[in-house]
Design a protein that fits this description.
Elements: H1 3-26, H2 33-51, H3 53-60, H4 62-81, H5 83-87, H6 108-132
Helix pairs in contact: 1-2, 2-3, 2-6, 4-6
Length: 151
């Protein structure tokens, strides 16, 4: 990519990262973790486009991303399960509520939203880079006879 493109990505990346943080921190109702995870994927794709795969290869390896996704899923499960001992039922809000329009006013939804960011962001990265890494067509042409030569 050109110097202009790389410079533009360097300028836009922090702004988009702040937007993702805003979504996860203020968008807990109905849920900011999913769009923040999509923003995280967008950040990774911007770096991939501007600087190449080598720049993000250590981060987007399947082993790393699957571990991060597992941590996000376990955090969601633990946050929901902690409602049983602390509040008496599964997924009950066990985090003390803060005054309205503060970061902690969402209770357990804030915890869930951050965990959802980790889960969704890493899951989307896994899916997109698996598709980018495909080397052949999984759906053969209708005219082909299915032999190895057609693939």
């Amino acid at each position: 990519m050109t110097v202009v493109t790389r410079t533009a990505v360097r300028v836009v990346l922090p702004l988009l990262a702040v937007a993702g943080c805003y979504l996860v921190s203020q968008g807990y109702s109905p849920g900011g973790g999913f769009p923040a995870g999509a923003v995280a994927l967008g950040l990774v794709l911007l770096v991939h486009t501007a600087f190449g795969y080598r720049r993000i290869a250590p981060v987007v390896r399947p082993v790393v991303m699957e571990a991060v996704e597992t941590v996000g899923a376990l955090a969601i499960i633990v946050a929901l399960l902690l409602g049983i001992p602390f509040a008496g039922s599964f997924a009950a809000s066990w985090v003390p509520l803060a005054p309205e329009q503060t970061l902690r006013s969402g209770g357990i939804l804030q915890v869930f939203s951050v965990s959802e960011l980790v889960e969704v962001g890493s899951g989307l990265v896994i899916v997109v880079f698996a598709l980018i890494g495909m080397r052949h067509d999984w759906a053969p042409d209708p005219e082909s006879d299915g032999s190895e030569d057609d693939r």
